[in-house]
Hints:
The protein is mainly alpha-helical. It has helices spanning 2-11, 14-18, 49-57, 80-92; strands at 36-38, 44-46. Strands 1-2 form a two-stranded antiparallel ribbon. A hairpin with a 5-residue loop joins strand 1 (36-38) and strand 2. Helix 1 (2-11) crosses helix 4. The longest helix is centred in the last third of the chain and has 13 residues, at 80-92.
Amino acid sequence: MIAQGARLFRQYGCSGCHGENATVHAPKLQGLYGKPVPLQSGGMAIADDRYIRDSILMPLKDVTAGYAPIMPSFEGKISEEEILEIIAYIKSLGENDRKEYR
């Protein structure tokens, strides 16, 4: 599931903005899962399955503080199974894990 999520992460262009060598200013995902995320609204969210799923489908719902709201919505473009695989991949990206964005 993680390997499939990594493939989809590249296929859908996620690594172009969230990858280690990205030129776009987007939140890094390494070590993100389970951590608090400050929001532009002044609130806070926890980067759990729901937050990541919502960020993929409704990226304007909870924009991360300090980042422009430029992420496109993948609603209607990605299946629920693919979302779960991408979430599994993001969860696998630990703080010191250098395997990211293979």
